[in-house]
Amino acid sequence: MLNFIARRVGVMALTALVLTFVVFFLTNLPPNLEKLARSEGSVRMSDESVLAWIEQNGHGGSVLYRYTEWVGISPGWTNTDEKGVTRGLCIRQNTDPATAPRYCGIIQGEWGFSTVYKKPVLEILGRALGATGWLMLAVMLVMVPVSLLIGVLAGMREGTRTDRVLSTFAIASTATPEYVSGVILVAILAAVNTGISPLLASWGLISTKTWFLPTATSAMDKINFWNFTLPVLTIALYGIGYIARMTRASMTEVMTQQYIRTARLKGVAFGQVVMRHALRNALIAPFTVIMLQFPWLLNGVVIVETLFNYKGFGATLVAAASNNDIDLLLGCSVVAVFVVLVTQLISDIGYVFLNPRIRLA
User: Fold this and answer.
1) Three-class SS of residue 317?
2) Is pLDDT of 359 > 60?
3) Which whole number is the average pLDDT over 127-144?
4) What is the reported pLDDT for 346?
5) Alpha carbons 346 and 291: distance in angstroms, whole number
6) Do residues 103 and 76 make contact, with C-beta atoms less than 8 angstroms apart?
7) Which helix (H) or strand (E) holds 194?
8) pLDDT bracket for residue 84 (50, 70, 90)
């Protein structure tokens, strides 16, 4: 197992380098650098001034070498202008260039400075990931138990009315995009003039105009049931159907196995057969799918966070891409790659424990 984990970590590191280099190359294309120069300098800059700004701010030269600077395995660039002022990647404000460190990249904890928010990238990502982390946790607590329950019940009763009803719900939820289900939930539960909120208000069952808040902006300061339910339900509904369908297919296959028939012929109760013999084997495939939900949630919350005005990782990613904030965009890519690779490693390790027939060479 240790050798397997060591090999996977090595492959993960190589994959992370390749993926981050691709993102670095795309974000540092000449048109993006020219746009950055004009936004940081002046829109009326001449082409010669733009090229000079790019060189003076460390964006010139080989892309590969600048990538190694950004990672932190090559010394950071320095430049002295005509006034004798020395600037560089590792030279911060009010820092003596003579005492500045030579290396200041990702591995040293220096993730750059956001040109939009005017703050360090790590500070921005920490706040955004904290907000999205709470959203992901709430979604997983709702999505996983409900989807597994639906899938197991449908798989146990294959071909029955229960199976058809639950399968129809699962297909409908998966086929409905988040921007559609979110609008529907807002119209039904959080609109002043439509849905059930006006009825509840007229009957005196709620003291406010709407049952739930249509935005999650207040959840940035304090999360409660009223401002967090709609974004959680919007994301969970889309994921429930996919996991439920996978669980149903796996459960259906397991229930037709010979050892299940043998247990039934021996007189073992149906519920005991399901819990002790079928459920563990049926959860092998859904476990992998559940682990894949973490990177999907991290990058898939863009629509929901925008719809409900929740300033998390998705909103930060949109702002970075829209405003050509290169350092922030690179920081978002590092986080996304890390989450994808780590969840894949956890999925592989968990797969081995769930299925003892798998042996690691």
Assistant:
1) helix
2) no
3) 92
4) 84
5) 8
6) yes
7) none
8) low
Cα–chain-centroid distance for residue 158?
Answer: 34
- Tally Cβ neighbours within 10 Å of residue 297: 24
The proportion of the chain whose per-residue pLDDT surpasses 70, expressed as a percent, equals 94
Whole-angstrom Cα distance, residue 251 to residue 273?
A: 12
Burial of residue 82 (CB within 10 Å: 0-12, 13-18, 19+) is: exposed
Nearest to 175 by CA among 248, 238, 249, 240: 238
Q: What is the pLDDT of residue 301?
A: 81
Rounded to an integer, the average pLDDT of 178-203 is: 88
Distance CA 190, CA 213 (A): 6
CB 354 within 8 A of CB 291: no
CA 358 and chain centroid, separation: 29
Report d(CA 283, CA 218) in Å as an integer: 37
Distance CA 305, CA 220 (A): 11
Query: In the predicted model, what is the mean pLDDT of residues 24-42?
Result: 89
Rounded CA-CA distance 2/259 in Å is 33
pTM: 0.83
SS3 state of residue 218: helix
pLDDT tens sequence across 310-337? 989 988 988 898 899 999 999 999 998 9
Cβ proximity of 312 and 132 under 8 Å = yes
Structure tokens given for 74:
């090559």
- Most distant CA pair in the chain, distance: 91
Taking the CB of residue 139, how many other CB atoms lie within 10 A of it? 24
The SS3 assignment for 139 reads helix
Length of the chain: 361
Q: Which residues have C-beta within 8 Å of that of residue 347, sequence separation ≥ 6?
A: 287, 288, 291, 292
Tell me: pLDDT of 304 over 60: yes
Q: How many CB atoms lie within 10 A of CB 143?
A: 26
Nearest to 333 by CA among 117, 77, 17: 17
Count of CA atoms in the C-beta half-sphere (13 A) of 104: 15
